[in-house]
Amino acid sequence: MPGSRPPKIRPKPVAEWDASIAALAGDPNSPGGGTLNVFGTLANHPQLLKRWLVFGNHVLFKNSLSDRARELVILRTGWNCSSPYEWGQHIVIGRAVGITDDEVRAIADGPNAPSWADPERALLQAADELHTHSCIADATWSLLVEHLDDEQLLDLVFTVGQYHLVAMALNSCRVERDDGVDAASLPFPVHPDEQ
Prior knowledge:
Elements: H1 37-42, H2 46-61, H3 67-80, H4 84-96, H5 101-109, H6 118-133, H7 138-144, H8 150-173
Helix pairs in contact: 2-8, 3-4, 3-6, 3-8, 6-7, 6-8
């Protein structure tokens, strides 16, 4: 992670995890092939980790938004929240669902970047409005309903909200990016401690 400040809460080594969450340890598909630092950090509070994962798994794996739409709004939220961990982790996930590095740069530029088609511009605009005003403006909502059904609209709001919560935890605990998360040549948000 940029800067030299250590985590405020150190990730708990898997060998020290509570038995009730031990099955969560080590995802061989994660960058670096091990336990993600966010999970290691939350392993310091096993009950919180177990309950948070239920909702987090819905947002990440059972979301009614397309994988691409989900990652666009998560990346924009990570950028808006100045969360290098969230941004870097979801660049990896975004690439896996077809988001290009040029699109990642455009996400950093925001909804007014010229490369966005109207449906994607509306998603990014919604993420910005939720970040700034905690509400999607009527004009943006009108654009979204042309492309999204009610379930997708709800998942959009809850996805942005979930990743705001995650960014708050990541930034506050100063969670370090995982091994293998490299976004060389891409913009990276500045961690609040580094500003």
